[in-house]
Design goal:
Elements: E1 9-15, H1 21-36, E2 41-47, H2 58-66, H3 81-84, E3 89-92, H4 95-104, E4 112-114, H5 115-126, H6 129-142, H7 147-164, H8 187-210
Parallel strand pairs: 1-2, 1-3, 3-4
Helix pairs in contact: 1-2, 1-8, 5-7, 5-8, 6-7
Length: about 210
Amino acid sequence: MPAPTSAPVQILTVCTGNICRSPVAERLLHAGLDQVVPGGFVVSSAGTRAMVGDPMQPASADIVRTFGGNPDHFVARQLTGNILRGVDLVLTMTSGHRGEVLQLDASLLKRTFTIREFARTLDVLDGRAAESAAEAAAADAAGAGDPLAANTAFWRGLPARAASVRHLSLPADSSENDIIDPYRRGPETYSQMEDELAPAIVSILRHARLNVPA
């Protein structure tokens, strides 16, 4: 178990332009996780070929509002090695983005997943209630009575546990790891993005709620 620290868990979401997909994931994960453990997470995003300085696309902002998030004051930024430094978990929108993250920082191999892939592994872990309870109890002990430290300990150990059940959550088609890119496409493509992304976010938030520090 990593050394206990009350520093918030650092999560980064990644897509291409950082104006459609990863901003939605960022803002909805932030809103949901902050309800579970206030102050326990910092969620940010970046793009592999970012439209630097641009706001979130209006259709993406509408999706964020629909699910109770706040799309305001968002500014796209380019993914860099400096941004990746110190990140606990990277959630990409496609397998291609995952590869680009690892080209920048290969040390993140075991902490980088597509968001749909990560969500499926958490669904597997949620089905192993006894094991999850043991991991949460160990994190509580590591936190020495500090809920934020316990939360950080739990989430810093989570990528390794997720990777250990990756083989149990493989999709029938590898395309099911990816979130469709709706940029410059119609409302139906944004709806498809929402349909692919929302269940993944729900799974991540459910896992967080099931493992709130004591």
